[in-house]
Design a protein that fits this description.
By secondary structure, the chain is α/β, with parallel strands linked by helices. It has five helices and 14 strands.
Length: about 240
């Protein structure tokens, strides 16, 4: 397990991502070839931690209920998950799963913003989050696709003021209207972005491995992005800065 990096991730900074999959072994094959990840099984095989050059970068989690969505989830760092969950509820969000210990790794909770976009909280103990990011094959950005970006800016701006606007801000987190890239009926959601050196080449790899292109490459203020799904239907984005 990586050393504690709690001081690296201020409250409101994306510090971890995981994918809820029906078939973790298939996920290992897909992401292992796409991003060059290796894996260590944790908690008797209930999830696999993905490593890039020996450093933790993500996890693949076996779904306990087949009715749950196949999705990537972004975790925001916090020193106190219980207090943050209370603030989220007070601001109009919902607590889907109250803060609970994840063994000796940390404390986690699943929450939503007022529009229903799902995200997670992570209060670190032995596992502080990413050991590597902003490099090819690792987390690079999280974009919230919201129906009301002004309301989203107000909610997250109040919730994560220092991380988004403080003197040492490193948000790795933006907001955009759902209608910018998706059909009007798409619900508000977070889209996890992974860095790649070459978006067209990565798209070829995605399709070769059984995934598909959901949104072809487009330009943003933070780089060139394409939205894809893996071979089990989990959506994520490829980003070339």
């Amino acid at each position: 397990m990586a050393e504690n990096r709690a001081s690296v991730y201020a409250e409101g900074v994306p510090c971890w991502v995981d994918a809820q999959l029906r078939d973790v072994e298939a996920g290992k094959r897909f992401y292992g070839e796409l991003f060059g990840w290796t894996f260590e099984d944790e908690w008797y095989g209930s999830f696999a931690e993905a490593l890039k050059d020996g450093e933790p970068v993500a996890a693949l989690v076996r779904k306990v209920d087949g009715r749950l969505p196949t999705v990537w989830t972004v975790y925001f760092a916090t020193p106190d998950a219980l207090a943050l969950a209370r603030r989220i509820r007070s601001a109009g969000g919902q607590v889907v799963s109250a803060p609970v210990p994840a063994g000796d790794l940390g404390v986690t909770a699943l929450v939503t913003d007022p529009e229903g976009a799902v995200f997670a909280l992570w209060q670190p103990d032995e596992h502080a989050g990413f050991g590597k990011r902003h490099e090819p094959g690792t987390f690079a950005w999280a974009e919230l696709y919201a129906r009301d970006t002004e309301a989203a800016n107000a909610f997250y701006g109040d919730l994560f003021q220092e991380a988004l606007f403080g003197p040492d801000a490193e948000p790795d987190f933006g907001r955009a209207p759902v209608s910018d890239r998706f059909a009007a009926e798409m619900p508000p959601h977070f889209l996890v972005h992974f860095a790649v050196e070459d978006v067209p080449a990565a798209l070829e790899d995605v399709t070769r491995l059984g995934g598909r292109v959901q949104v072809p490459p487009f330009e943003t203020s933070y780089g060139t992005v394409a939205v894809v799904t893996d071979d089990q239907g989990a959506s994520f984005a490829l980003l070339r800065r």
